[in-house]
Every structure is written in C-alpha cells, then in structure tokens.
Design brief:
- By secondary structure, the chain is α/β, with parallel strands linked by helices.
- It has one domain (13-241): TIM Barrel (Alpha-Beta Barrel), CATH 3.20.20.
- The protein is 41% helix and 15% strand.
- The chain is built from seven helices and nine strands; from the N terminus they run βαββαββαβαβαβαβα.
- The chain has helices at 31-44, 63-79, 98-103, 127-136, 154-162, 180-191, 210-241; strands at residues 13-15, 46-51, 54-55, 85-88, 91-93, 113-117, 140-144, 166-170, 195-199.
- The strands form two sheets. The chain has a six-stranded parallel beta sheet with strand order 3-5-6-7-8-9. Strands 1-2-4 form a three-stranded parallel beta sheet.
- The longest helix has 32 residues, at 210-241.
- It binds fe (ii) ion.
- Fe (ii) ion binds at residues 17, 19, 91, 201.
Length: 246
C-alpha cells in the first residue's frame, strides 16, 4: 500500500497586503468587487486580511471615508457569512509628511506599524534617516515588496534590516509576476532570512487561482521550509494583531 504524505500540510493564512477596500485606489472599484476578492481569499485559505489601500498622490482618501467603507464592507461580510476577518491599515508611499498625515487622521497605522512603500524607479535620498525619524515616534516600519525596488542593493537591504525595518514580500514575486529581477531578489531575501511577512498585494479577484497559489506556496517552502513559511504567512502577523512584543 502506498501512503501519500502531502507536501503541504498547513492551510491557513493571514494576508497583510491587499487592495480590497472599494473605491479608494486602483484595487476594487466597488463593493461587489471587494466581496469577490474576499471570496477568492477564503477559497485560497485566508482567514484574516489587512486592507491596505494606497495612500499616494493619485489616491489620498482620508480615514473618515476609509472607516465608513470598511464598516459597510464588514457588515456585508457578516451578512454573507464569509469566514474572513478584516482589519484596516494603509500602504503609504514615502513622503516627508508622514507624521503630519498621521496627526491629521489621513493615514492608518496597524497596531503601531506602518506599511511603507518606496518609489519604483528613483532612489529616495536619506531613506535611513527618514525611517529613523518615524521610529523615534514609536512607529515600526514594514517595507512592502522590497524585491520590487530594483535600485536597492544587497547592502541597502542589510542596512534596512539592521535598522529593524521588517520586510513584506509578495506571493506573486516568486513566480515572476513582477519580472525576473523581482523573482531573483525575492529568492535572495527569503534565503537570507530577511522576510517577516508574505502578502498577496491583491487588486482583482482573478489575480490568483488555487493551482497557481499552491505552486507559489510550494516554491516558497522549498526555499525556507514549512515552519518559516508558517511564520511569514500567518504567525508573525498574528503576533502583531494580538499586540505581542516582537
Ligand atoms: Fe500594494
């Protein structure tokens, strides 16, 4: 008798990067799309999701509007009995105004953590100093998809890690959705144990399918092992949700 042991035994995730909140950015345009994406995440095995709408020049919706749509979406989730818990945050493009934006209730931190995005083409001057200024205000920085900023060198990544910046990579990078450079870099970051979180950065309900997601997961597990995958896809973000010290 042949006993088949599944390669992947765990099947629950927390998504820490998503563009599901409707009508805020280039993600879900309306509540029906939000619900469709949430159904997809449930199908893939996600039990919690942090909504991280962009806050950038082109999309700068304040917290009052975000909270109102978040409330409406949560009501819909309850009504449809979707087994997924929502949280609200922001993906914030770096600017010298971040402290003012927090003070004026424009952007949302998550348990004291800021999901920080960098520009894709141009290097930010004095990045480390800007991050340090945020940390002086007790803001902990999670750099989103570091593998996508091609101007960052291996030395830059090390400096950011030394500054206690946490890295969140995208699931799609491992299969080349963002190009070969990001694919190569995400492998480097995973191999060097630089990654604290992995997220979907989902914008549309057809962005992933079950087969493709399984392929992504097995490729990540091949690099870091199942236990570390469980940490970056679930345990680490669960600690933040429960306000546990890191
Ligand atoms: Fe994003």
């Amino acid at each position: 008798m042949v006993i088949i042991i599944p390669l992947i035994s765990t099947n629950k995730y927390i998504d820490c990067h998503s563009h599901i909140l409707y009508g805020i950015d280039d993600g879900a345009p309306d509540i029906e799309h939000s619900v469709a994406i949430l159904k997809k995440l449930v199908e893939l095995g996600f039990e919690e999701v942090i909504l991280t709408p962009h806050y950038i020049n082109a999309f700068h919706v304040n917290n009052r509007v975000k909270r109102e749509r978040y409330r409406i979406l949560q009501e819909r989730v309850i009504r449809e009995q979707l087994p997924i818990q929502l949280h609200l945050a922001n993906e914030v493009r770096i600017t010298s105004d971040i402290l003012r934006l927090i003070k004026e209730d424009e952007i949302t931190l998550f348990s004291g953590y800021l999901f920080l995005e960098l520009p894709f083409s141009a290097r930010i001057h004095h990045l480390e100093r800007k991050i340090y200024e945020l940390q002086l205000e007790n803001i902990k920085v999670i750099l989103v998809h570091p593998e996508r900023y091609h101007y960052l060198t291996k030395d830059d990544y090390q400096k950011l890690i030394d500054l206690d910046v946490m890295f969140q990579v995208n699931y799609g990078s491992i299969i080349g959705i963002y190009g070969s450079k990001s694919k190569k870099m995400v492998k480097y970051l995973l191999k060097n144990n630089f990654v604290s979180f992995i997220g979907t950065d989902i914008h549309r309900s057809d962005q992933f399918n079950v087969k493709q997601f399984a392929k992504i997961k097995s490729r990540v597990i091949k690099i870091i092992g199942e236990e570390k995958f469980q940490d970056i896809s679930y345990n680490n973000m669960k600690k933040i949700i429960h306000h546990e010290t890191w």
